[in-house]
Amino acid sequence: MSETTFNPAVIEMRGASIGAMRDASLVVVEDVHWTVQPGEFWVVAGQQYSGKTDLLMHAAGLMTPGCGTCRVFGCESGALGEAQLADRLRVGFVFAGGKLFTRLTLAENVALPLRYQKDLTPEEAGRAVEVLLELLEITSFANFLPANVAANWRQRAALARALVLRPELLLLDNPLGGLGVRHRHWLMQFLEQLAAGHDFFSGRPMTIAVTTDDLRAWENPRRRFAVLEDRAFSVLGSWNDVKASGGRVVKELLAEPAG
Question: Which residues contact residue 218 at a Cβ distance below 8 angstroms, ignoring those fewer than 6 apart?
Answer without folding.
Answer: 43, 45, 210, 212, 225
